[in-house]
Amino acid sequence: MFKVHAVAAHRLPQLLRAMPKAELHMHIEGSLEPELIFALAARNGVKLPYASVEALRSAYAFTNLQSFLDIYYAGASVLLHAQDFYDMAWAYLERAAADHVVHTEMFFDPQTHTERGVPMQAVIEGLHRACVDAQAKLGVSAQLILCFLRHLSEEAALETLEQALPFRDKFIGVGLDSSEVGHPPEKFKNVFAKAGALGLHRVAHAGEEGPPAYIWSALDVLGVERIDHGVQSIHDAALMKRLAAARVPLTVCPLSNQKLCVFPDLAQHNIGALLDAGLCVTINSDDPAYFGGYMNENFVQTFAATGLTAQQAYQLAANSFEASFISEAQRHHWMHELKVCFERFVEHDD
Ligand code: ADE
Ligand code: ZN
Prior knowledge:
alpha/beta, eight-stranded parallel beta sheet, binds zinc ion, 17 helices, TIM Barrel, binds adenine
């Protein structure tokens, strides 16, 4: 294990910001800032139920997941053309690069758009073009994961997968998101089996608000490789043991959990307990435009509130590369860069 020297508390935020990291849980529609929502609404002639950027932002007071999703889907209504999807993704990718995110696997929700008559091709081609440019212009590798909306039927998910197949080379996996409670993973058994047979990676939101039973079924019925959120696993000792033994990654989103009242405040987040139990935990931003921060804000605020250490910072960044769907060569490269970053930082300690 790479041993990290103690770092003075006042220098920890600098280290958190500088270290290379991967982001594995970020909904691209959740990166739409109010300013861009208004700009796209004007460009596309879409009428919004909010008078101004400030009025929209002041509606961002959530009590649970559903109270957020209602506003999040309304915000996405301004996206109509491939260029809109490109502009949204590009804005996120520039921010990610500034946070030293070197690799990102971005969720997108095609059903939010195809249900409004937007062609699948416009969605995927706009997003994909931003991913290509991110590698060329920012040095960030970016991939797409297609999410099914779990409040809709499995039939609708199967149809969505079918519509996306002409663009199979432009996304690396499938996920499951939207309203969790009442929509258990097993509802999507067939569509995940089909995605698996097509060689797509599989992930699912489970244990954000829903019970540990949803994490078990995401693993055993859907065959997922990662659990998105998964913070409710803490209530099931046998599940914790399994997740630790199999190194099943949890893509945890601390500021999201705070804003959606999954924990009463950030200081009471269980990320430290999950790490102490040996789970492959990562930190991610989920819906950064809505939850008050991109990657580095999630790291800095979480460390300040919970007292995580520099050793745990290293662990979280290393976990992000372990959990990502990159090649072994890329993983090797970024693990080396991560160690170099920590060594340099310690050398220059005062
Ligand atoms: N879609 C966007 N953000 C989400 C979240 N945190 N949980 C479930 N679905 C989502
Ligand atoms: Zn999410």
